[in-house]
Amino acid sequence: MLKFASRKTRKTLKTLLGLVFFAYLVTSKSFAYSETNNRVLNFVEQLEDIRTLSDSDQKSAIEKLKLIKPSLNEFPLNQQLEYYHLLAETHSLLGQHRLARSTAEQALVLASGLISPRIVIAKLAYDLGYSLESLGHLDLALEQYLSGLDVAESLEEQKEIAVGLINVGAIYYQTAKLSEAIITINEALTIAENLSDKELKGLVYSELGILYGSLGEPEKSIEFYKNSYRYYTEADKPLLAINNLRNIASSYRGQGKTDQAIASYNRLLDALEGINHVEMEFSAHVGLATIYADEETKQYDLAIEHLTKTEQLLSQVEHHFLPFRFLIDKAVVYKEMKRYEETLAIVEEALNLFHSKQFKVTPMNEAVLLVLRSETYRLMGRYKEAYDTYLRVYDLNMEDMQNSQTQSVAELRLQYESRRADIENSLLANKSKLESIALDEARENSENKQNYIYYISIIVVIFAILLNVLRKSQRQLLKVSRTDALTQLINRRRFIELANRELVKAKKQKESVALLVIDCDLFKTINDNYGHATGDNALKLLTRLGQQHFAKPEIFGRYGGEEFMVLLPGTTREQAIEKAQHYRKAVSALSWNDENEHLLSVSIGVVTTTDANSYNFEELFELADSLLYQAKEKGRNQVCV
């Protein structure tokens, strides 16, 4: 027995028992860790399976996601956010934009608990942006897209950078910033080509199709849509591919290619069989209604059939613009069916909706309605009202022209004024004649006089629309200007653009230019110890201090994350060092943390064109960045040259 054993034996046994107990603890913990890890892996696999399902059966995907929800808190926060991203994305695919918005907002609140930025934050910002865009809040959508883009850029996730650029470009062309849209979407196209990502290419080509449709190039637009359809199909994204059928049909309809449009709309409806996507089904029926009511087709029974189906779907549509678009198309159908009083009532309803400003509108939206009203007046024999309405269309385009600020557009406006004066003189010369026509009840002269008004009016409208297209084309010459969402400084792309411009100028004048690359020391520690809100405040403090120390023509911008850049034109090596040291010392002197547990400091790399023997921005940045890391290695809070 143990009590009769020697002291040495008892000691040995105790040691053995201790080792056995330790081995038990290690084994049990390892087993627990392995079990937890397996559960997380299973959860990830579940999400991937549901994501695949969402490409073809969104409703079933949402039901499966609902089944997971009760156990969601058992998984790491990052995986929870992936769950919410998939849920928001699936709601968007179904056109359930309000549900997508609330889901993304809830997830972004949870994301504040992450220790460091994750790419899922960018995806959720894009989800929220798209839902806001679809609900008509374009300004708020742009903020979310830029926020997501900043996260993607800081993590150098090329695919999500491209997605962000596409989203931002979409807002640009919807707000008539066509030059910015072209540049931004083409940046995304370059990334997509380099990555050879088929789904990403599908997205880029779809947006290019919409963009070139806006520029009045329908043939090129359709070609882009067809490419998008092909890439989405190859990427096994059937619903996204189907959406291109809607765009192709709409383009054919706009060109007056009736047979191709009908075939494309019917193909769209066949593809939607069993999917129950309200927005696309709505678009197909309203498109077919307007085609069948057309003067050449005159199949009014089919027009009414599709119009009725459209009205039945209207209450389920969440996209902000579609109810307005529906009223326009409904007015067109009724006009073609010679139901003129009802046409005028629908136009009036649409104009009231337009002026309520419940969604983003342009003068051309109003112009379309006024053209419909004027044409209806003409067909009713109310010529004076037709004339007055067309003049209003005329004035709308002039008001829009006057808002343009480029010299080329100003010259175009002068040409328009001159042409308008010629037309107005012709119209005024016949004004009394036009008014007498409206009162003349002699049937034998009515037809000739109607045609006279009609042709003059058509000339005015066509000229106005052409001028509007030309004006938009001129805007392609405008430069892109972008700011960082957090600090309101110019961001990396804008900084590089301005820096290259200054470097070209300096090279011609043989002047020295300095580049400073600044990094906030121990920024991760700040985030970990005090939270991301405090980290953001630190960046804002560095920004305000930078704005006080660097002024025009000096260029101060945010590179991404905790890094900033400053370009100092006409600055020597010694002057650049002095400025860098001055800023570094000012940062160190800041009192920003009540407990004084963490002093704020920066490390700075400084390079000049003279030192580098180059005016190439990439070479200057590479040198300055390497000097910055030397400053870090030497203990931080230093300037290295």
Automatic annotation (TrEMBL):
Its EC number(s): 2.7.7.65
Domain GGDEF: 511-641
InterPro entries: Diguanylate_Cyclase (IPR050469), GGDEF_dom (IPR000160), Nucleotide_cyclase (IPR029787), Rev_trsase/Diguanyl_cyclase (IPR043128), TPR-like_helical_dom_sf (IPR011990), TPR_rpt (IPR019734)
Taxonomic superkingdom: Bacteria
The species this protein was found in: Thalassotalea algicola
Pfam families noted in UniProt: GGDEF, TPR_12
Entry cofactors: Mg(2+)
Key word Transferase present: no
UniProtKB keywords: Membrane, Transmembrane, Transmembrane helix
Any one GO cellular component localisation term in the record: plasma membrane
One example of a Gene Ontology biological process annotation: negative regulation of bacterial-type flagellum-dependent cell motility
Signal peptide residue numbers: none
Reactions performed catalytically: 2 GTP = 3',3'-c-di-GMP + 2 diphosphate
Molecular functions (GO terms): diguanylate cyclase activity
Name recorded for this polypeptide: diguanylate cyclase
Chain ranges passing through the membrane: 452-470
